[in-house]
């Protein structure tokens, strides 16, 4: 069954190109733009990384784990990272290392597989300079008066194919971007000449003929993907905000320098929103994973919640969805435990392994439905739906045969099939059931009593009492989040 995925370039759902089985060296090359490590990644960023992690898992499942090469970079020098060093008056490497470590810890907690290579921009200055020199030699780039180097957009007729941006819009978008040293407002920086007041001690020797300085953001990914995956990659991904100008510029740089197609397939996932607007570091309207763990939610619930929406649709983040995710995970765990009991297997041993389970020879209903949906443009909500339909059917069978141990014996093969299928599905989604689904909060009994009273008052529409009790709870350091049928207590942030 081929994996089909929307291609942002052709704007259609297309089959992913699979590695050539006749060539043992042929692997599927997958480049995913990584984080900018100057601040904590928020769960919007992690929506993109979790979606990409599911993609990576599907590729491994379909082609084999040794047939996929996944590269995800770390942007550890750009305007934002340098801005942060100026703000904090600390060395660039110290800041980027701190946020890289935090990013890794969060990725591990969210059960994201580490990429096979995680190159840093500062570790690839030579490769970027080489590429800029190549572009200058070929007439696609020029040195500006201040010693910076710009890409000449008019030299690449294919510019705009990905974003379908018109020349007029391009001028408006780029007018104020890079100062006034360039020939055309549409051109973008490949190399930025050193400015002591802005850059501190961040500088490297530049391309031939240019000043010392630092690379532009876009060239980083072109150079790192070339180094680790070659001139043409099979799949290039990122969040939707990267489509323009970042990926448009990557295409221009790479294709002009390498003389060949840069990426065979482009995929962009949509943003996570908070109250209708994009969650972003610059807006400050974000949750980190740490914020949610502090509120008592488990990283697995966060991962699950991020998969509840279709990756190509915006998803509004609500704490309610974390509660739904927790109860879904609890159900899954209960079902997996029941299957293990019937099959007389140890649950921890059976479901605790992170290894890729082998694809069962016979695909039975769960796997067929699940893969049918998730291979169809990464329809994660549809795939979760298929999983829960199967779970309900399985539970119905278990309920109907609860008093019939003979039927358990005659169905051992079927239980084993269900276990194998379920393990595979959980691997594909990156969901672990061995972790505690929700970090249990220690709620003092007096707080629970107040909360119960307030809930009862609210149900009785005695809003004055309910409000007074809410205030009492807040004074004691607790907030109550109400849904239609229930409430949840959370410690107030200090
Ligand atoms: P950054 O660290 O800003 O370079 O972003 C890392 C990744 O997160 C990129 O692929 C962005 O497209 C993606 N991203 C940024 N904001 C959001 C958001 N609100 N929802 C989903 N993905 C996002
Ligand atoms: Zn990139």
How would you describe the overall organization of this protein?
The chain is of the alpha/beta class and 494 residues long. It folds into three domains: 4-269, HUPs (Rossmann fold, 3-Layer(aba) Sandwich), CATH 3.40.50; 276-429, no CATH class; 445-491, no CATH class. The chain contains 18 helices and 15 strands. The protein has helices spanning 43-63, 79-88, 92-109, 125-137, 167-174, 196-199, 217-229, 243-258, 289-294, 299-306, 319-343, 347-351, 365-374, 380-400, 405-410, 412-429, 445-459, 463-475; strands spanning 4-7, 12-15, 28-32, 68-72, 141-143, 149-151, 188-193, 213-215, 235-239, 266-269, 272-274, 277-278, 315-316, 478-482, 487-491. Helix 17 (445-459) runs antiparallel to helix 18 (463-475). The two termini are 51 Å apart. 43% of the residues are buried.
The appropriate CATH architecture of the largest domain is 3-Layer(aba) Sandwich
Per DSSP, the total helix count is 18
Biggest sheet, in brief? 4 strands, parallel
* CATH superfamily caption of the largest domain: HUPs
Helix content: 40-55%
Tally of DSSP β-strands: 15
Give the overall silhouette.
globular
Task: Provide the fold topology.
Layout: E1 4-7, E2 12-15, E3 28-32, H1 43-63, E4 68-72, H2 79-88, H3 92-109, H4 125-137, E5 141-143, E6 149-151, H5 167-174, E7 188-193, H6 196-199, E8 213-215, H7 217-229, E9 235-239, H8 243-258, E10 266-269, E11 272-274, E12 277-278, H9 289-294, H10 299-306, E13 315-316, H11 319-343, H12 347-351, H13 365-374, H14 380-400, H15 405-410, H16 412-429, H17 445-459, H18 463-475, E14 478-482, E15 487-491
Parallel strand pairs: 3-4, 3-9, 9-10, 11-13
Antiparallel strand pairs: 1-2, 5-6, 6-7, 7-8, 11-12, 14-15
